[in-house]
Amino acid sequence: MGQSISSPPPATVTRTSPPSSCPMHDVPSTGCPIQHNNPPVAKSSGGCPIDHSSLNTLNPTNQMPNLPQTPISPQAVPLPTERTMSSIPRVVDGETKTDTHQTWEYPSPQQFYNALVRKGLDTSPEHIETVVEIHNFLNERAWGEVMKWERRVAQEGDEEPHLARFKGRPGEMSPKARFWMLAGWLLPSRFNTEPPFDRHDWIVRRPRDGTEVRYVIDYYSAPSTPNGDPGFALDVRPALDSLESVQQRVAVGMDDVWEGLREKGWGKRERGGTQQARS
């Protein structure tokens, strides 16, 4: 999950890199493409360029305001306003009472830029389209990891779960991330010492009975691939909010332990010794 790792990352972490055709290969190989540590951009004396009167109400599904598609001053580069549909299903619209299943729609580059300006993050408009590509790519991979967990508890005939709502929490480190940071502080030569550059909490709803499960996703930068492509690591797991989630986490952890032992040949040696003793 970082440049200082000399041992395998936690079992639930999935390393990933963009496909070769993706424009995000032009970004630096490590770290979040958005400069979170930069101070907010100073606004002109004429006031904030965003009309906050339309941004007071947050969308309860993503804790974000309804951002405009119009350029904001001093933006000099025009940005696309087209939005891309994701593969992530969302809950059936409760207002229209339709039975059609919809998917989440990613923000346009213009909306994404407006959101960054609203948060005071200094990001060049020239890089926004690449940042949006990274954002969409990582979310698709995160949903794939969520589905791996969901398949473990799915029953025959179940419909596909939906992402009901989510919240970005980049300034709040999860307990697990804090644990690995402590491990990196104690054993820097063995564990990662870099914190995740982002965190999301996703609420997944199961159509069978309406159960909602919270998933925690930590986003890490990872070493670039041998061909120089940027690398990312995702740690996706159900939050420890219920007994079922605790049981899932323990079961997956034990599976990974046994798999590691088998890869080292422990099981083969044990079986060979048993067969020799019986002969």
From TrEMBL:
Swiss-Prot/TrEMBL keywords: Heme, Iron, Lyase, Membrane, Metal-binding, Mitochondrion, Mitochondrion inner membrane
Major subcellular location class: mitochondrion
MF (Gene Ontology): holocytochrome-c synthase activity; metal ion binding
Reaction equation(s) it catalyzes: holo-[cytochrome c] = apo-[cytochrome c] + heme b
EC number: 4.4.1.17
Compartments, record wording: Mitochondrion inner membrane
Superkingdom classification of source: Eukaryota
Signal sequence coordinates: none
UniProt keyword Membrane present: yes
Region listing for Disordered, in residue ranges: 1-80
PROSITE patterns: CYTO_HEME_LYASE_2
Polar residues biased stretches: 53-73
GO cellular component terms, A-Z: mitochondrial inner membrane
InterPro entries named in the record: Holocyt_c/c1_synthase
Recorded family membership: Belongs to the cytochrome c-type heme lyase family.
Function in brief: Lyase that catalyzes the covalent linking of the heme group to the cytochrome C apoprotein to produce the mature functional cytochrome.
Protein name: Holocytochrome c-type synthase
